[in-house]
Amino acid sequence: MWQSVGLTVLVIVATLVCVFLFMLFGWYVVWQLFLSKFKFLRELVGDGGSQRGETEPPQPEIDHSSASGPRQRPKTPRQRVVPPEVAT
User: Fold this and answer.
1) Calpha distance 28→34 (Å, rounded)
2) HSE value, Cβ hemisphere, 13 Å, CA-based, for 84
3) CB–CB of 36/47 below 8 Å?
4) How many Å apart are CA 32 and CA 49, to the nearest integer?
């Protein structure tokens, strides 16, 4: 009788340990691949070691508002459209 109760408790405890380890491993993988990229979540967890990009100086941003339109490659002479007045 006591052997079956002990075996049942052992199985329950082993199952809980396996589930806990699986959840811990899953959290670690998701943290490394995705969640550590967010500064807000790093501050919540208190992780100061994975601040990879913050030690580098910020790159100057390019002002796109001065451009008249989307950036295009210069056209070759074959691609240019010649107005009919100039062609004659």
Assistant:
1) 10
2) 0
3) yes
4) 12
